[in-house]
């Protein structure tokens, strides 16, 4: 037993962003300026922060960003017509509509309207299908960020038992597919799983994406396991934390992602990468 190595999302995302910035420079020399359109409906404070951070990251890597801030009472037809307009624009390569939307709007229709080649979040069913088949242009940002972290640390899922906790469309399900594509043997757990610990104890790679503080304690993990904590929760002092009882798991795991500074910074870096991919694809580069 020792102390697990921290998988540092700040360092790894900085590397991804620097590669993206180089690619943007190269594209600009070829006359292509990658551009991401970000739509925010309403005034949800967390969404405002996410959108602001996305804009700042765009600036950092040289991607042009367009912001559309719409009032909370925006009608479905208005939002759909904005997306259709952006779908048609040659100078816009990626379109992102910050979720969640106000409850009167239909998220599914909105996601379906974003054209597959500009869907840099990879939420559109066409892109989800490509992920399932294994020939996707865009991978959903958070699970793709986790795969990038594993790759950076030289950790392959091949032959390993990978246990993913959570089955959402944006994290858990695509995460399981990407680990499967990397030749892991994958188990997906969720709220109806009985005896969660039975599965987690068998995990060589454990990914937790639930949103419940201290869900994963040291007695639930295998010696030398790789622990990836996707969740963002707050503890009783209001500080950010994940699902994993970090301090106690640290001595038993071989690798662990901290919260904050783990998966979080990777998500936005992968969004930048997807935007550059979109620009390249649309310009046959
Ligand atoms: P979500 O849609 O709420 O999904 C949570 C999943 O956890 C569901 O599949 C649920 O099962 C499962 N679950 C709930 N209680 C459980 C329990 N006691 N045992 C086992 N499974 C349980 O959340 P999400 O959007 O996937 O996000 C998950 C977490 O990741 C959140 O904390 C979110 O803030 C964070 N997140 C972080 C990033 C990042 O960039 N780091 C990005 C996205 C999300 P059922 O399906 O049966 O309900």
How would you sum up this structure in a few lines?
The chain is an alpha/beta fold and 285 residues long.
List the helices and strands and how they pair.
Blueprint: E1 5-6, H1 9-29, E2 35-41, H2 45-61, E3 64-70, H3 76-88, E4 94-97, H4 107-113, H5 125-133, H6 141-152, E5 161-165, H7 172-181, E6 185-189, H8 196-200, E7 205-208, E8 226-229, E9 233-234, E10 240-241, H9 246-249, E11 255-256, H10 263-282
Parallel strand pairs: 1-11, 2-3, 2-4, 5-6, 5-7, 7-8, 8-11
Antiparallel strand pairs: 9-10
Helix pairs in contact: 1-10, 2-10, 6-7, 6-10
The protein binds NADP nicotinamide-adenine-dinucleotide phosphate.
NADP nicotinamide-adenine-dinucleotide phosphate (NAP) is lined by residues 142, 165-168, 170-172, 189-193, 196, 209-212, 230-233, 263-264, 267.
Structure description:
By secondary structure, the chain is of the alpha/beta class. It has 2 domains: 32-118, 3-Layer(aba) Sandwich (Rossmann fold), CATH 3.40.50; 140-264, Rossmann fold. It is 41% helix and 15% strand. The chain is built from 10 helices and 11 strands. The protein has helices spanning 9-29, 45-61, 76-88, 107-113, 125-133, 141-152, 172-181, 196-200, 246-249, 263-282, and strands at residues 5-6, 35-41, 64-70, 94-97, 161-165, 185-189, 205-208, 226-229, 233-234, 240-241, 255-256. The strands form 3 sheets. Strands 1-11-8-7-5-6 form a 6-stranded parallel β-sheet. It has a 3-stranded parallel β-sheet with strand order 3-2-4, with helices on both faces. It has a two-stranded antiparallel sheet with strand order 9-10. A hairpin with a 5-residue loop joins strand 9 (233-234) and strand 10 (240-241). Helix 6 crosses helix 10 (263-282). It is globular, with a radius of gyration of 19 Å. The structure holds NADP nicotinamide-adenine-dinucleotide phosphate. NADP nicotinamide-adenine-dinucleotide phosphate is lined by residues 142, 165-168, 170-172, 189-193, 196, 209-212, 230-233, 263-264, 267.
């Amino acid at each position: 037993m020792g102390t697990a190595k921290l998988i540092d999302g700040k360092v790894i995302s900085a590397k991804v962003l620097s590669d993206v910035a180089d690619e943007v420079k190269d594209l600009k020399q070829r006359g292509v300026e990658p551009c991401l359109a970000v739509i925010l409906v309403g005034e949800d404070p967390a969404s405002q922060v996410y959108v602001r951070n996305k804009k700042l990251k765009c600036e950092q890597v040289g991607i042009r960003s367009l912001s559309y801030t719409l009032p909370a009472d925006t009608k479905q037809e208005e939002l759909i017509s904005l997306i259709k307009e952006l779908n048609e624009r040659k100078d816009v390569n990626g379109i992102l509509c910050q979720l969640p939307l106000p409850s009167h709007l239909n998220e599914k229709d909105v996601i379906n309207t974003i054209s597959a080649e500009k869907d840099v979040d990879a939420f559109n069913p066409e892109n989800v299908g490509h992920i399932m088949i294994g020939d996707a242009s865009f991978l959903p940002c958070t699970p793709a960020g986790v795969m990038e972290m594993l790759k950076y640390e030289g950790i392959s899922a091949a032959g390993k038992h990978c246990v993913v906790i959570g089955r959402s469309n944006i994290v858990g399900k695509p995460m399981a597919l990407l680990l499967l594509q990397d030749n892991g043997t994958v188990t997906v757990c969720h709220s109806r799983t009985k005896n969660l610990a039975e599965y987690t104890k068998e995990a060589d790679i454990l990914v937790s994406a639930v949103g419940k503080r201290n869900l994963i304690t040291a007695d639930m993990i295998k010696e030398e396991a790789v622990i990836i904590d996707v969740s963002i929760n707050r503890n009783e002092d209001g500080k950010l934390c994940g699902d994993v009882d970090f301090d106690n798991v640290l001595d038993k795991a071989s690798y662990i992602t901290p919260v904050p500074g783990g998966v979080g910074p990777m998500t936005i870096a992968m969004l930048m990468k997807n935007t550059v991919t979109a620009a390249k694809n649309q310009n046959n580069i």
